[in-house]
Amino acid sequence: MILVDADACPVKDEIYTVAFRHKCPVRLFAGQYLRHPDHPLITMTMAGDAFDAADDLIVAESGPGTLVITTDLPLADRALKAGAAVLTPKGEVLNAQNIGVRLATRDLMVDLRAGIEGQGIGGPRPFTKADRSTFLQALDRVLHKLGA
Predict the structure, then answer these.
(1) Cα angle vertex 93, ends 89, 96, to 5°?
(2) What domains sit in the chain, N to C, each tagged with a CATH number?
(3) Other C-beta atoms within 10 Å of 82: how many?
(4) Nearest to 2 by CA among 141, 143, 147, 96
(5) Phi and psi dihedrals of 74, rounded to 5?
(6) Alpha-carbon span 28 to 21, nearest angstrom
(7) Which of 83, 72, 71, 54 is nearest to 135 (CA)?
(8) Which tens digit of pLDDT belongs to each residue from 127-138?
């Protein structure tokens, strides 16, 4: 099963395409309703607007054999601890070996941005066609590994 942190996920259409090919169920989690294909493999869970409500629901469903797709590093860490595989929309596989460094870097960047407010330091680079292609390849590999 694929669990998607869907509010700002730029690769939902790609997830659907690969899920249909693998006949793998997809659950979308978001604060409010998002349009999605009317297909028995796709379900939508509206978490409401409480802080981390969607994250909590995703973690509750996470475990061995599930794949979580998210850019949210604290959510990724929680899902990994629950036994899930984790993939970012840019095709990066997150795991126990790299999540600690990624979290530390995230925290450092938050502190740097706060310390130099108004100095023009930006966020992550824009999402590209190459990122989309990398994601598709990584998603296929991970699903094969999970036996989907």
Answers:
(1) 135
(2) 2-116 (3.40.50)
(3) 16
(4) 143
(5) -60, -40
(6) 18
(7) 71
(8) 889 999 999 999
